[in-house]
Amino acid sequence: MSSAPLLEVWLRGPVPAVPPLLQPVAHALLQAREEVQALMAGFPEEKLNEQPAGLASPAFHLQHLSGVLNRLLTYARAETLSEAQLTQFKAENEPVAGPDAGAQLVQRFSREVEAALAQLRGTSEATLTEVRGVGRAQVPSTHIGLLTHAAEHTMRHVGQLLVTVRVLQAAP
Question: Residue 11: is it exposed, middle or buried by C-beta count within 10 angstroms (0-12/13-18/19+)?
């Protein structure tokens, strides 16, 4: 007897302790984590930095997934980026190397998703329409706008990672 495929995260019910209005954000982040883990399982380390047809490399997407989620959640907390975050941002385009580099990047993303879920659990729905500044220019957004964009941007890069990985896996 074969087991039924796992339902997508949003069909599995509410994420415990996450406010109702933030459930879609939590669902998207959890779905992204599952997809990244499945996609990168067994992916060859030597292809992490490859850029087929000029596309961003899998290493870039993995680094960016963690970094941008961290940065957007910092802005959602109405905080400014630290020097460490700015340094990490500049390094996202750098190639990665070393044994288990891909697995380490996947683990880092998983930790960022856990941190995001913790932040969502501690978020009061009453703050969701509050203005939050983005970047050095403090371009105005809202708390919910930043959280929603964090989920949307994450899923966008998961899709781009999927295409790049599939192209690299199909290459001789």
Answer: exposed
